[in-house]
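User: Second chain of the day. Same drill as before.
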Amino acid sequence: MKNSILALLLLLVLIPLSLNASFINAETYIVKAGDQFLLQTNEEEFVPVTLTVTPSGYLSLYPFGDRIYVAGKSLKIVEELITNEVSSFIDIGKVDIQFLLVAPYKFHILGAVVKPGAYNTEILLTLFECIQLSGGFTTNASKKVNLIRNNESYEYDLQDYLSGDDIDANPFIMDNDVIIINNAKEYIQVFTNNDTLSYIQTIEIENDSTKIEDALRLLDIKDNISSFEVFSIKRDNYIIDADKDFILQDRDKIYLTAYEQNVYVVGSVYNPGPYKFNGAMNAEYYIALSGGWNTNGSSKKIYIINEYGKKRRYSGQTIKPGDIIYVPESYRSILISYLVPISTIVSVVSTIILLSRK
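Assistant: Same format as last time:
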């Protein structure tokens, strides 16, 4: 009875730990020092025992058998070795063998992540969780990740995992695995300027027929994407209006917005009107698009009127979509406009005086 109680208490402690090892692939996992196994039997004289791989690589099976060398072998082979050894001491049908606990292990992550280096972990982590632990992808990182394990190289496309198409593209990481993340060779960047211009994500493109709608499906965050109705592409410093069928090119920038995308130039310019918003360009850029200052325009004083109608003198502040750039007349043109009628009056008065003297 006492042994039964001890066995129950031990199981209550060990079962949560065994969950950490329950996702292991027995054919690919390599057993190492510190890994633990659970052996139990339904006979009362035996209580469940945990067996730990020693630093020298051995696993002692006492009281179910002698010690065996296991380090560096796959979990599947080790389980077969345990079964063969135990069967020579006891009816193997009465013994349950479980891989219980993965010992703390080290992995290396190199390349396009925020904090590359060596990491130690006491819990089983997936490939994507390891990348998050290292600070995540850098801006232009490729989602195609190389994994070096036991001198073999494997490639996993995490974009397939993130899009929900392939959960197998996010494997568990093992001891001494090396994760290598390269920069994307061709990519586009996605921004939104609903409130302020802000970066969303970099997306790797693989062919010359990727459309905007294809890129939107690859976004990690898809919430509210359907609300975007206007697409602008910045390519070689030019802004292009686009729809979802627009074909993207390497280094294109997509700007998503459901709001005003124009900047208006009014006043003393040659071609007043709306002009496509072009990111962080200054007021002079939009004035140049409108043909520049006309002969009456003031080059020393420009005003910005925002969407709420507030008027401020321009002093280099950021131009936003919907802003109105107002170019007033220069003081010189205003003065001339007043002097012309005055000179006309003076001329008329002078004429009258001259005529009155005759």
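The CA atoms of residues 83 and 92 lie 7 Å apart.

User: Great, on to the next one.
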